[in-house]
């Protein structure tokens, strides 16, 4: 199944379906292992009243026994191109909402919609549509991945549509997003790259270094100019060399950089992930999906922008040359793999999937951790780290399965 590249629509509010356990009633989850920002509490409790977490429970609160389960914050995905058969770059509004809902079913309660390389007129049109969805609260903002990337490291982007990051073009995308642009990935070594980084920083948009062929020295220069994120570290950039350390070394060693990692077992060897955590720590790592249409949907043929993709056994590759084309990852799988395969602590995995990306987006006052006053975005996991409940803004997206 392929997304319709020409589909358009008008933004509307996504429907919500409250679970009866919380429809109009405060809720208390009790008996669970609760992962808090500063500690892990066994036999803990979380109180939800309306859309928020509260410190005290009203007398009429409904109690849900979550013994034997974890309660953790909802996941925050900085980099996501679609899911459920829908593309955020080319799908209609209904399809985009379907893709958002697909990822919510897998625990992503906050999502930034990513676009792929296209011509400037098309991208500005998409930015306008996506900005409406951001204004309605369906997404947390827009991430532009391309067209300002290196043809040497283009990955699954159309080379014919790539261009240098001239600040005037970057400004067009910022303006089209109407204040909802959160991040833009660019190869900062290209002409105009450093000036564009400065422009992005001035407008409060994250400048992310990615799909780059930069040297170590050029990457340091970009960080000094204001870049703060490494787009899917290790992927689509020169490998680390002992005489030519390249961008990976510069990005890992600098405390100003948050590194994205795609933890699907395909994009990264476990040792590479361990290397990143050893040097950056959970406070500087954000697990992302880089998901395309097939996430949560299945194998088959799809479109990623103008390029055809074949998904087989859950791995997406361009049909023309076999290049890996995004992922079919969902963040519940990334979390479970982090703990059960990569050996990370539950606390570090929660930080990388919730707190770190929330802070990077400037949303740490409302999401990313379980604290009174923040939105009731939370997940229930069983002892095997399987997802058993998803709550967003106090309403069950996936009702508790605690039997």
TrEMBL record:
The active site is at 290 (proton donor/acceptor). It holds the Pfam family Amidohydro_1. InterPro entries: Amidohydro-rel, GlcNAc_6-P_deAcase, Metal-dep_hydrolase_composite, Metal_Hydrolase. Residues 70-397 form the Amidohydrolase-related domain. CDD domains: NagA. Substrate binds at residues 156, 235-236, 243, 267, 324-326. Keywords: Carbohydrate metabolism, Hydrolase, Metal-binding. Transmembrane segments: none annotated. Binds 1 divalent metal cation per subunit. Residues 1-27 are annotated as: Disordered. Residues 14-27 have a biased composition (Low complexity). Its cofactor is a divalent metal cation. GO terms for molecular function: metal ion binding; N-acetylglucosamine-6-phosphate deacetylase activity. GO terms for biological process: N-acetylglucosamine catabolic process. Pathway: Amino-sugar metabolism; N-acetylneuraminate degradation; D-fructose 6-phosphate from N-acetylneuraminate: step 4/5. Its EC number is 3.5.1.25. Belongs to the metallo-dependent hydrolases superfamily. NagA family. NCBIfam families: nagA (TIGR00221). This is N-acetylglucosamine-6-phosphate deacetylase.
